[in-house]
Write a structure and sequence with these properties.
The complex is a heterodimer of chains A (about 575) and B (about 120). By secondary structure, chain A is of the alpha+beta class. Chain A contains 14 helices and 20 strands. Classes of the chains: A alpha+beta (about 575), B alpha+beta (about 120).
Chain lengths: ~575, ~120
């Protein structure tokens, strides 16, 4: 029995690989899962439809990573947990949230040992206070380099890991389920355009979020909801799908290239800045939060306030709010952001002379795959990690919790998946993969279709507009019902009518599968949003503006005969008392 | 400012390895400050979704996947600014062409072919 790396065979032109653990997606969660599974002795196949460690959301993270390491000020993970639960508006899965907060320091220390290079000051790791945190708790890598540094560090660990095989450009289109157990996957090899099957004793879904299905988003192209759709289709449950986080101050104008639209977040951490309406007046105070020159108002309140001001005719020219650093001296700007100030100058922006315009942008998905504390779904052999997991952040994610979630949940998913399969036999059943292979071959069997087929792009544009307008920041029954009706038609009639065609690097074929996942996710969000008849956190209903204590429960979705079925479940509570604050030793 | 809708003209190299490259010209609605990638994404959404380009992070210049040649010089499509004149976009000349603007930039240890060789060597 060989150790390390997958086995393969090639029959009838079909490439077949075999591994212990298949990890789908190679952002922070996927790479950490691969490392953890390999160090627990498993053979791992790490697959990404983009390049390993370059696609996804992790690499785009600008700054903050929340971790109660107590270097800047005394802290304790139970206080991080209290802030997380407060932000989550009563819906956090407290078991998952506790795991996230308790293990974040372990992962941050391990990343430090792997030389990620957390910013330091005065001989200790520097930590800043992000909105919603009571203590300076967020570590980062200068300048705006947290994501690239985390991704690079993990790429190095993955490359060194014994028993990890990496495959870039391998797009998993379906999971293969046999007798209720996940036994592998069907995938498209983008370079050749050929189908590939993978037998795996367990699969870890770490393919990130779904914010690309909104018109204004900060997503990478890969974040169309693959993980959620794969999980649903394999029989797993989704939780809290109605909660999409809109980052309040995404860049709006002037046009900025080569910079992430979330970049003003770190500017506000370090320099404060003032958020003003179109009349250059402060306005957050009118919506029950405080923001005067500080950065303390919660994300959901700020997003709501900007949209309401704009709707009332008090928006900035491009339809958002002004963000001003004009009162900050240039020397201070430079000390805080060094070369980033030059990149802004290349874009024609001098922060001492002008304010920029910002507006909410779809940024993160609180909802996701329902797992236990071992990151296992209700389907044997299926695990999830990172943003793909739902529940830990409830109705609103606390700033700085996304990267720890990727690292902590990734490590756990890899470790527990390896434990779970240690005594399992490889089971593969070609007949269980037949339907998925058939679809893949049908969609890639002809040459890529040319100019006659802009319809796929139009369908995605329509989806993004529909989600933004009807299932976005401000929702009501009429808009949600209309969206659901159209989404059902798009999923059942419009999508199957498209024939993208295959061949070498058929982006059209990949688009088709992306769109199939996105439409299922969109319907999940709209369905859950329609059924939640209250406003809470990131879910704001204009027809139900108040929070209803009776609805402090999770909504669970699963697929039954191709249709979404919704049920309620009590929130998983696991009370933890706050412990005394401690300084790092 | 003129009231006429401004457009940018973009010539894009098409075709797979082994074919004679051909060029297609697209008129794209112009917005001040737009990037070459913005234009290519507009073409994919509204004119020809079979156009192949490799990119992931879209605008952040973080993934570093979108390298192409703009008027013969290597650029990231996401940071190369588009003007209202004509621009020609092609694949990297020093990498193996896959399709249209996509070349083989996958590290050798991360390919399916490599995974198969490693598996075979292991028996």
């Amino acid at each position: 029995m060989p150790s390390g790396g997958p086995q393969y065979r090639k029959t009838a032109g079909l490439t077949h690989l075999s591994t212990d653990i298949l990890v789908v997606g190679s952002g922070g969660a996927g790479m950490y899962a691969a490392v953890a599974a390999a160090r627990a002795g498993a053979r791992v196949l790490l697959a990404d439809k983009s390049l390993i460690g370059r696609g996804g959301a992790t690499i785009m993270a600008q700054m903050t990573v929340a971790s109660a390491i107590g270097e800047e000020a005394p802290d304790h993970w139970t206080h991080h947990l209290a802030d997380t639960l407060e932000a989550g508006r009563g819906l956090c899965d407290e078991t998952l949230a506790a795991v996230l907060c308790e293990e974040s320091p372990l992962r941050i220390r391990e990343m430090e040992a792997w030389k990620v290079g957390w910013a330091r000051e005065g001989g200790h790791i520097k930590q800043v206070t992000a909105p919603g945190h009571q203590i300076p708790r967020c570590v980062y890598v200068d300048f705006l380099n947290t994501g690239p540094a985390v991704a690079k560090t993990l790429r190095g660990q993955v490359a060194r890991g014994n028993g990890i095989t990496r495959i870039s450009g391998l797009a998993v289109t379906d999971l293969v389920v046999r007798d209720g157990r996940v036994v592998g996957a069907v995938a498209l090899d983008l370079e050749s355009g050929a189908p590939v099957t993978v037998a795996a004793k367990a699969v870890v879904l770490a393919a990130g979020g779904l914010t690309r299905i909104y018109r204004r988003n900060s997503a990478s192209v890969n974040m169309g909801g693959d993980a959620y759709a794969l999980a649903l289709s394999a029989g797993a449950e989704l939780i809290d799908m109605e909660f999409v986080q809109f980052f309040p101050i995404g860049h709006l104008a002037p046009r900025l290239v080569g910079m992430d639209p979330i970049m003003w977040d770190p500017f506000r951490y370090k320099l404060g800045g003032r958020l003003l309406n179109g009349r250059k007046e402060e306005f957050i105070e009118n919506y029950g939060a405080s923001d005067s020159g500080t950065y303390t108002a919660p994300r959901d309140v700020t997003s709501y306030a900007i949209v309401k001001e704009t709707a009332a005719g008090r928006g900035s020219p491009a339809g958002g709010a002004y963000l001003s650093f004009e009162h900050v001296p240039e020397s201070e700007l430079r000390a805080a952001f060094g070369p980033v100030i030059d990149r802004l100058a290349d874009n024609g922006i001098d922060l001492t002379a002008r304010s920029i315009e910002v507006a909410p942008i779809a940024h993160y998905h609180m909802g996701g795959i329902r797992v236990d504390a071992r990151m296992q779904t209700c389907v044997p052999g299926l695990f999830a990690a990172g943003e793909a997991v739902g529940g830990a952040n409830g109705a609103n994610r606390l700033s700085g919790n996304a990267i720890p979630e990727a690292l902590v949940f990734g490590e756990r998913a890899g470790r527990f998946a390896a434990d779970a399969v240690r005594d399992e036999r490889q089971v593969w059943d070609a007949s269980a993969a037949a339907d998925a292979l058939d679809t893949l071959r049908r969609m890639t069997g002809t040459p890529a279709q040319g100019p006659a087929s802009p319809a796929r792009g139009e369908l995605l544009s329509e989806l993004q507009a529909l989600m933004w307008d009807n299932v976005g920041l401000l929702r009501d029954e009429e808009k949600l019902t209309a969206a659901l009706a159209r989404l059902r038609t798009m999923r059942r009639d419009d999508l199957p009518a498209l024939e993208p065609g295959g061949g070498t690097f058929s982006l059209a074929a990949q688009d088709w599968f992306d769109l199939r996942a996105s439409l299922l996710c969109a319907e999940s969000i709209a369905r859950a949003a329609l059924e939640r008849r209250e406003s809470r956190g990131a879910h704001q209903r204009e027809d139900f503006p108040d929070t209803d204590p009776a609805q402090a429960e999770n909504r669970i979705l699963r697929l039954a005969d191709g249709e979404l079925a919704l049920a309620s479940a009590p929130v998983r509570r696991a009370p933890v008392a706050k412990k005394p604050l401690e300084a790092a030793s | 400012m003129s009231d006429a809708p401004a457009t940018a003209t973009i010539r894009v190299q098409r075709g797979v390895a082994g074919e004679a490259p051909r060029f297609e010209t697209f008129e794209v609605p112009y917005r001040e400050g737009m990037s070459v990638l913005d234009a290519l994404m507009w073409i994919r959404a509204h004119r020809d979704s079979s156009l192949a380009i490799r990119y992931s992070c879209i605008n952040a210049n973080a993934c570093k996947e979108c390298m192409v040649e703009v008027d013969g010089k290597t650029h990231y499509a996401c940071t190369a600014r588009l003007g209202t004149g004509q621009v020609t976009v092609g694949p990297l000349g020093n990498k193996r062409l896959l399709r249209d603007l996509v070349t083989d930039i996958v590290p050798p240890k991360e390919t399916l072919a490599n995974a198969l060789i490693e598996a075979k060597d292991r028996g």
